[in-house]
Structure prediction request, 227 residues.
Amino acid sequence: MYSVARGCAKGELDNCGCDRKIRINEPTDDFEWGGCSDNVRYGNKFSREFVDSGETKEVPEGLMNLWNNEAGRKAVKANIKRVCKCHGVSGSCSARICWRNMESFRATGSYLFKRYDGASHVKMSRKKHKLKPVNKFMKKPTKKDLVYLKQSPDFCLNNTKYGSLGTRNRRCKRDSDGLDGCVLMCCGRGFQTIPRVITEDCECKFYWCCYVLCKKCTHRMDMHYCN
Prediction:
């Protein structure tokens, strides 16, 4: 949807162009609608026809995909901003023309990632072909929420069924906040630090033509491993 809507506005697609829907200004507005807006309406329509066409409401997976597809479209529509440009003599802003653009793809992705963290665990209601929370005490997901049917496997522990070796004894980086950091990789089990003596190539030089000669350098390094 995002790429199609932006492609329409850029003139990259034959079947669509800018969204030139006439918008009515409020009395308090100090601008006029105009310019070339991202064609979110066409992108939304295209997404429904193309992405949703292979899904069915007869099976849980189809219902889940249709729900999440719609949540994704709503995420794009929730991240639309007004962009304006001034027109006037000698840099004045006697007239201000505005149009609507989608936020950056990264901003929309971050919005969806927050929804992903709070996704609802659901199951199919056989009577109505609808989704409902697995836990009856949990609130029903809104149309903006993401849903899932199965719990993700715990990759922190050894699980031969899913081919996961777990993270025990995995090397990690103590000071990293990323996925390679000990805090995340070790899954709260802590880690141990073992000093190692490392020998590696150093002071390498290129000689014409054509080979490289290196010295061997030895140094001490602390290695961190998950418990």
Notes: The chain has two domains: 2-148, 171-226. The helical segments are 2-10, 40-50, 60-78, 105-117, 182-185. The chain has a mean pLDDT of 90.
